[in-house]
Design goal:
The chain has 15 helices and twelve strands. It has two domains: about 240 residues, 3-Layer(aba) Sandwich (Aspartate Aminotransferase, domain 2); about 130 residues, Aspartate Aminotransferase, domain 1. Helix 1 packs antiparallel against helix 2, helix 2 runs parallel beside helix 10 and helix 13 crosses helix 15. The strands form two sheets. Strands 1-7-6-5-4-2-3 form a seven-stranded mixed beta sheet. With about 400 residues, the protein is of the alpha/beta class. Helix content is about 35%, strand content about 15%. The relative contact order is 0.13. The model has no long low-confidence stretch (mean pLDDT about 95).
């Protein structure tokens, strides 16, 4: 008998993980606001602490439905949500290496992740090295006896670089490392790293997964073995997601495919417009043939996301004037929401790094990052046109 194919992602976004039967027949999962739940049996035997129904343990019905849905979306065995993207990243990076462990890390990762590694790892007896080049033979020379993991991003922030993900997975398997990837910028609509062989997939669900700029949340997905280990660490840290935020994230996920595909198209068209403009020096977007990893993007991604970055002729002053003159774009951090956001990463997402560290990551003072929203694409391009001409 042939195996029934898995539902397409649009169907999974709506139906995967939903509780059956529905609570009181409600089409939308209710918010379980209670912090206390009655034990089912006064004579029950001693249970595993992490199995007790308690909000801090990330196991309310709101948590469980989200975890099952996210596991299906990322083609993983298991998943759970956390209070923020950094809670997910921290729990993973403080669990996988083990005592005295060492991690290999892609250069140019998110500023918060870089700060965790550079500011906290040493105090906790852990260490890391940035990958040198793109040749796995070079990476092999950086291995230590205590190297336990390799950490990368699907698309780096804000330069949108794409590492050779197939090589990363192969390298990890060859050397017994746990492969961890932050898939925030791509989303499972555009890329499912687990299908390539990654062990753990992380998200800042604050961004695209929620999509409405009204909560902070994170996701850890992957093999059941590693997800359970990371979940227990997070439970000890207390980084749970509250029930109302679970409700908002659950709601936001249902429109993810529609939103991301619109943002893919808008970002592509805006990147092409900016690249053709005389006042724009350079544009970074994987959908452009000029992008250094364009071929990789075409091979692995179904779309290239809603974020692009660029440099203007005129440097910092020109960048500030552009930001001031835009009428639709909101000058602020974060990404993935319904409104277009614009910022200079040197003063926002990467401000915690030194000037030398930012330079190594390719983040200049004048670099501008744009996260396109859900506005009409033509309106957005017209706004950038008037701001550039002014």
């Amino acid at each position: 008998m042939s195996r029934k194919p898995s539902p397409r992602i649009e169907t999974q976004l709506v139906h995967a993980g939903e509780h059956k039967p529905r609570f009181a027949g409600a089409a939308v999962l209710p918010i379980f606001q209670s912090s206390v739940f009655e034990f089912p049996d006064a004579r029950m035997e001693k249970s595993n602490y992490h199995d007790l129904l308690y909000p801090r343990l990330n196991n309310l019905p709101n948590h469980k439905v989200l975890g099952d849905k996210l596991a299906a979306l990322e083609a993983c065995e298991e998943a759970f949500v956390s209070a923020s993207g950094m809670a997910a990243i921290s729990a993973a990076l403080l669990t996988v290496p083990g005592e005295g462990g060492h991690v290999l890390v892609q250069p140019g990762v998110y500023g918060g992740t870089h700060n965790l590694l550079s500011d906290d790892f040493g105090d906790l007896g852990l260490s890391f090295d940035l990958l040198e080049g793109e040749d796995p033979a070079q990476w092999a020379r950086q291995l230590r006896p205590q190297t336990r993991a390799i950490y990368v991003e699907a698309l780096t922030n804000p330069r949108l670089q794409i590492l050779d993900h197939a090589a990363v997975v192969q390298f990890a398997k060859a050397h017994g490392l746990v492969s961890i990837i932050d898939n925030t910028f791509a989303t499972p609509v555009n890329f499912q790293p687990r299908l390539l062989g990654y062990d753990l997939v992380l998200h800042s669900a604050t961004k695209y997964l929620n999509g409405h700029s009204d909560l902070t949340a994170g996701v850890v997905a992957g093999s059941r073995e590693w997800v359970e280990k990371v979940r227990k660490r997070l439970n000890h840290f207390g980084g749970n997601l509250d029930a109302h935020a679970c409700f908002l994230l659950h709601r936001g996920l249902k429109t993810l495919a529609l939103r991301v595909r619109h943002q893919n198209e808008t970002a592509q068209r805006l990147a092409e417009y900016l690249e053709s403009h005389a006042r724009v020096r350079q544009v970074s977007y994987p959908g452009l043939a000029s992008h250094p990893q364009y071929a990789r993007g075409q091979a692995w991604f179904r779309g290239f996301g809603g974020v692009l970055s660029f440099e203007l002729e005129g440097g910092v002053e020109a960048a500030c004037r552009l930001i001031e003159r835009l009428e639709l774009a909101v000058h602020g951090p974060s990404l993935g929401g319904p409104e277009t956001l614009i910022s200079r990463p040197a003063t926002s997402s990467h401000s915690g790094m030194s000037a030398e560290e930012r330079a190594r990551a390719g983040v200049s003072e004048s670099l501008v990052r744009v996260s396109v929203g859900l506005e009409a694409c033509d309106d957005l391009i017209e706004d950038f046109a008037q701001a550039l001409e002014a």
